[in-house]
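Teaching assistant's notes for section 4

Start the section by putting this record on the projector. Ask students to predict, before seeing the second block, whether Protein nuclear fusion defective 4 will look compact or extended. Collect guesses on the board.
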Amino acid sequence: MQEDDVYYLILWQLWLALVIATHSCAWLGTAVLVTNMRNFPLSRGTVAGILKGYIGLSAAVYTEIYNSVLQESASKLLLFLTLGLPVLCFALMYFIRACTPASGEDSSEHGHFLFTQAASVCLGIYLLATTVVDDLFNPSDALSNTFTGIMVIFLLCPLAIPLKMTLFPSNSKKNLPPVGSSDSLVQGEGNSNQTEPLLTPSSSATCLGSFHEGEYASDIDMLLAVGEGAIKKKRKPKRGEDFKFREAFIKADFWLLWLVYFLGVGSGVTVLNNLAQIGVAFGVTDTTILLSLFSFCNFLGRLFGGVVSEYFVRTRTLPRTIWMTFSQVVMVVTFLLYASALSGTLYASTALLGICYGVQFSIMVPCASELFGLKHFGVIYNFMLLGNPIGALLFSGLLAGYVYDFEAAKQQSSTCLGGTCFRLTFLVLAGACGLGTILSIILTIRIKPVYQMLYAGGSFRLPSSSSQS
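Reveal the predicted structure now:
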């Protein structure tokens, strides 16, 4: 094809294509995440960690396909993204559907989660290893295709779980009543004569009776008055119940969580977007391994952020946001290391930042669902996600871009070299994460009673409206 035959997109066409593509990504992510959060409401941190972890690995998967199967052809990659992904989504969309969640802890379900986590870790390690091999040794086409085939096997490993459940169904689940049934409402083993109440609460308040008794004392009189027909007033939801978006929007906890997430991911994505330039400024000529290291550690942060927070919230009723606090403290130290430009700290700082950046995602998701419920979680979750692009615009597009261009102009070059290229940016990002640490401490203190109520028995007490929505 001659150069004159190449069709170039003008700016508005490129903008429109990006709008459609990014909106499609948001649709897919929301459908998968919200559906699985509702299907497994007793393991929200684990579910969020697994799904967000696989999202973190997706770029490395596409890179492997691009290098081997597509032979590093940009046109073939665009064709694959245009036709291949929609076909794949249409083929798999029927498997993403609402299911009746378990009414209690299930040991087999826990084992399935462990298997999926192990498979994802193996996939992440394998992708990191193949990236290093491709970069250092330039393997043959046959070997590259073999690498891709093994990668596909790792990707398909979680399918062993539904195959096992189909071929060897568990008999224990047959005896478990579904969530919301009258049998699941009976408390105690010998109370077989206990009947279900005639009226059941219509919101998540079914499991919140012991929380803030003084605050609920007036609600008893209110309910009695409503029952007698004296007044008609709907009680506003309290933390841990199902909120509508406009109800959550005016809550201080909502904005505290958004700000903490915004400061954490906004500062992290700034380094991610400029990591190649940061590596060159620090004297690294080939930044492939540096980018792969950040990607792998980002995956680890997403996966284990959900796992660790799930463990401590069950055993210690420790609010998940405490891990956002710890991670942002580490991010402050990491940015100061970047700013100092000390020799030998680049790779260690990048690994630490990748882990802490990933933690922000896997903590925000279950925390938002626990504070504001699952009924309208899709809208709340997507509003929280705005912290990422807004942070990228402010910290990366405006701050880092301006500082880099200014320092490069001082060197009379389009490429900036040396520790001064991003020093001011790193100091500002350290301050942003310092502010995020303070806000996350405040949020953790505020929501600690909520977690003490939700996980008082060592397991999440499922709100009825969340399970039936």
